[in-house]
Amino acid sequence: MLRFLIAPVALWFAMVSTASAAEPRNVVRVRVWDERQPEQKKAYDGGFLGDAIARHLQKHAGFEVKSVALDDSDQGLSDAALDQTDVLIWWGHVRHDAVKVDRVKAVVDRVMAGKLSLIALHSAHFARPFMSLMHERSKADALKMMPEADRRAGKFDFSRPLKREMVKPDSPLTPRLEKQGETWVLIPPVCVFPSWRADAAPGHVTTLLPDHPIAAGLPKTWDVRQTEMYSEPFHVPPPDAVIFEEKWDKGERFRSGCLWTVGKGLVFYFRPGHETYPVFEQAEVIKVLENAVKFIAMK
Predict the structure, then answer these.
(1) Left if phi > 0, otherwise alpha if psi is -120 to 50, otherwise beta: which for 296?
(2) Interhelix angle for 128-145 vs 101-112, to 10°?
(3) Domains identified in the chain, total number
(4) Is 7 helix (H, G, I), strand (E, B) or coil?
(5) pTM for the whole thing?
(6) Where are the alpha helices (DSSP H) in 259-298?
(7) Is 229 left (phi over 0), alpha (psi -120 to 50) or beta?
(8) DSSP labels for 90-114?
(9) Phi, psi of 214, rounded to the nearest 5 degrees
(10) For the domain that residue 236 is a member of, what is the CATH number?
(11) Are 70 and 36 in contact (CB under 8 A)?
(12) What does the pLDDT look like over 67-121, one tens digit per residue?
């Protein structure tokens, strides 16, 4: 008799477990990664920039947020932690090369597989994960650009390594595809721009795609009250969407909110920032991050 009672109970538990596993999560798991420069304390009341971002995002009921740092165990990027992360927000500036190659690969592989999305902030244009993902996108774009016959014949070379180097306003753009003899050679993206200026001048933002989910609730024009200037051209693959453009009174402009699909994942680059200005205390900036987290997590 007991045998007949146990079987239905076991079946019920199995059905409940299966249903629970199939239900989509209603919480976005966010990991804010910050190299934690001491200079950040000038702008964030003695604290760190990444912690400030996490504190703001934690106010959103749909987010589960953790703030981590370069000096944490496994650099805050263990396999177990990344497997429990939907969106990785990245701030890096002067310690890019301290990030271990295996941790970079762990991030890139998960983005490419559609298991993780990346938001790169300001000086993270030189971050190893961002540069690697821009390189992967460049490879995919290059394959589409070359003649089908050459592609099928394997007449291409994508082996040139990524380099972190400076450019001039008239430097040839990267990434680019060059025909060298019978071979198409990919010149990788250097993920930088010719000039910058840290004078705290405001950046005047135009919302170019007001109907995009990342722009939800933001005005057509708004200012980043204090920021560092970056000037085009930005040496990255053409974005799938440029959501924000930023201009300065001295005439510079920049594509300040760019979105790419890389493999099966999404990468969003958001330009405003500087470690000594309280950029991530401004409501509009935090709204962009909230929107971006929701959008790239859903995709």
Answers:
(1) alpha
(2) 50
(3) 1
(4) helix
(5) 0.91
(6) 283-298
(7) beta
(8) EE-SS-GGGS-HHHHHHHHHHHHTT
(9) -70, -20
(10) 3.40.50.880
(11) yes
(12) 999 999 999 999 999 999 999 999 999 999 999 999 999 999 999 999 999 999 9
Asked if residue 31 is part of any domain, the answer here is yes
CB atoms within 10 A of CB 58: 15
Residue 5 lies in a domain: no
| DSSP letter string, 16-82 | HHHHHHHSPPSSEEEEEEE---GGGGGTTTTS-HHHHHHHHHTTSTTEEEEEEETTSGGGG--HHHH
Task: Give residue 248's domain range.
Answer: 26-298
**63 vs 19, residue with greater confidence:** 63
pLDDT band at 298 (very low <50, low <70, confident <90, very high): confident
pLDDT tens for 186-243 read 999 999 999 999 999 999 999 999 999 999 999 999 999 999 999 999 999 999 999 9
Q: What is the token pair recorded at 249?
A: 């009174």
For 6, 80, 93, 190, the CA distances from 127, given in Å and listed in that order, are: 56, 22, 8, 11
